[in-house]
Amino acid sequence: MTIEQQIITGIKEAFQTLFSHELSAGELVLQPTRKEFEGTFTFVVFPFAKVTKMAPEASGIKIGEFLKANTKVVDDYNVVKGFLNISVGKNAWLGVFDSLYQNPDFGQLPKNGQKVMVEYSSPNTNKPLHLGHLRNNFLGYSVSEILKANGYDVIKANLVNDRGIHICKSMVAYRHFGNGETPESSGLKGDHLAGKYYVIFDQQYKKQIQELAEKGQTEDQAKKNAPLILEAQEMLLKWEANDPEVIALWKTMNTWVYAGFDATYKKMGVDFDKFYYESDTYLLGKDIVDEGLAKEVFFKKTDGSVWVDLSSEGLDEKLVLRGDGTSVYITQDMGTCDLKYQDFEFDKSVYVVGNEQDYHFDVLFKIMRKLGRPYGNGLYHLSYGMVDLPTGKMKSREGTVVDADDLMQEMIDTAESHTKELGKIDGFNAEEAAALYETLGMGALKYFLLKVDPKKRMLFNPKESIEFQGNTGPFIQYSHARIAAILRKADQLGVDFSTNGYAGMDKLENAERELIVVLYDFEKKIKAAGEEFSPSLLAQYLFDLAKEYNRFYADLSIFNESDPKVQSFRIALSAMTAKTIKAGMKLLGINVPDRM
RNA sequence: GGUCCUGUAGCUCAAUUGGAUAGAGCAACUGCCUUCUAAGCAGUAGGUUUCAGGUUCGAUCCCUGACAGGAUCACCA
Fold it and tell me: Where does the record say this protein resides (predicted)?
């Protein structure tokens, strides 16, 4: 039984004995005591005034006395207004520490037998990844790792958008203006090369629109009649008809792009278990349309188009198949949904996609449930907010994007200059130094993007570089490196801190107890982060942990401590903290250095 | 216009889902390296939680209405 459970049980018994009233454990909640008061857990008495038929303060005292007399863990209490603050005894905390320290599976909750698919990244192959994709990828990766730590079997999936009119735009522009350029000949990464032609297309297209407008066409007409867009549309048809020449160009350019993406993913430190390609899946879903018609979930209009009516669920009528029998976005998504299930029979399927598609996924999930899919209730849209610049939204065609490759490199360079400025590079060879810069730069970037609640949109100011001090990745990494130095020294001195059992110690300093309390929270935070699909909870926690450790580090000396048991304990506490930081940061996709 | 999301210190973000005097970091100011890494620690200052009502022992959180910002409402993806 955890400490909280013991206290809750005690409170339950208190209510039975003192007020002859039965309460379920679910009605009783403890919250952390605020720093300015004595105690670790607080029980709020106000809501039970009716039951106790006494003033909250008086009932708080009675309950507190009862707990002190009848439980092993409660050592002391105090009541402020209706708040019963509970202090847990030294030995209970040392017992908690021992069990954490001895648990080989600390940070990994037991397998729950459930399978979850996490789809993230899902890039378009006509342009390189940008800052928005970084948030998506880091989120998707981190959530996957968090779910693993929660006991899920996780499949990371990437649905690559490798076809469609936007891809054809890059191809058309390349055919006209490429002059046979390749990644090798230009020195450009493949994805950047494709992106270059996507931009060129847009520029030339705009030029043509203007020319047509000058010849008297309206803007709408000009947009439809510009030769480049007509050519792109024609190319899309040829692609669908398997035209050998078009397919050859498509394959060539895609190969370039994938090589570029591979490099970017590697730098990001993300990976996938399964790739889906829209070129394979874009025809799926039409059989589901038939099924939906047969089940009368869908209906057909006179022009032959097929619709679903979701007005009873607060949404609209929504098209699921065009009148000419061709697919729309959602047709294909229904098909892919089933395909994924056929492949993996997941219990849950998470889509990491920006909040601009909230409505789309709302519709998709409602449809799949109406169709009676067994996995219908396991579908979840992890909707995250856009990353805005001070100037507003990023637009790839207007060149206002922050490129992912550039930004990662900048972060690594900044880490290098910071480190050199601080003169902390003694004893590193060139290779180690480079690895450290990458660890720190990427740590800063990932932490920056993950510490914010995913669903909130966030601001990135390119002019103010991402911090390395305060609530940042490097701060947490630094705390780890500090501990690593202590552990090295302990090893050198031959101090044994692997011993089991600190429960009998005479004294527990405040800084030590506070640290144990925070360590004790780790698995609860993993659970919460998993339930809410929110790495930010974990990021926030790791900052608190590092802060608490640094307080301990400043307050108490380790190697000047004369009592060997206390010294050993403080090293063990440090080792436990390092282990927790490392494991927690791993769940965010962030590495921690042993020296920095 | 309909629907959804957001609004907290100068800036970037928290607040255990209704609890105590709303907390951190950055920026500003003051201390602390002859002692385990100062990318650190301790402290000062900074707030009408956009506004107005309501619900109750108690509201940043729930309800109603304004105001501001964003997204979405395509036979686009």
Answer: Cytoplasm
Domain A115-279+345-398 grouped into CATH 1.10.340.30: no
Just give the CATH number of A404-587.
1.10.730.10
A299 is near strand B: CB distance < 7 Å: no
Determine the residue type at A74. Answer: V
Determine whether the distance from the CB of A379 to the nearest atom of strand B is below 7 Å: no
Q: Which ipTM did the prediction report?
A: 0.95
For chain A, list residues with pLDDT below 50.
none
A325 touches strand B (CB under 7 A): no
Residues 6+ apart with CB under 8 A from A211: none
Quote the pTM value.
0.95
Q: Are A37 and A79 in contact (CB under 8 A)?
A: no
User: What is the per-residue pLDDT across A55-104, written as a single tens digit (0 to 9) for each?
Assistant: 899 999 999 999 999 999 999 999 998 899 999 999 999 999 999 999 99
Cα distances from A199 to residues A290, A331, A504, in angstroms, run 40, 29, 70
Per-residue pLDDT reduced to its tens digit, A122-165: 999 999 999 999 999 999 999 999 999 999 999 999 999 999 99
Structure tokens at A579: 């282990």
Question: How many Å does it take to go from CA A381 to C1' B42?
Answer: 44
Find the nucleotide nearest A163 (Cα to C1′).
B77
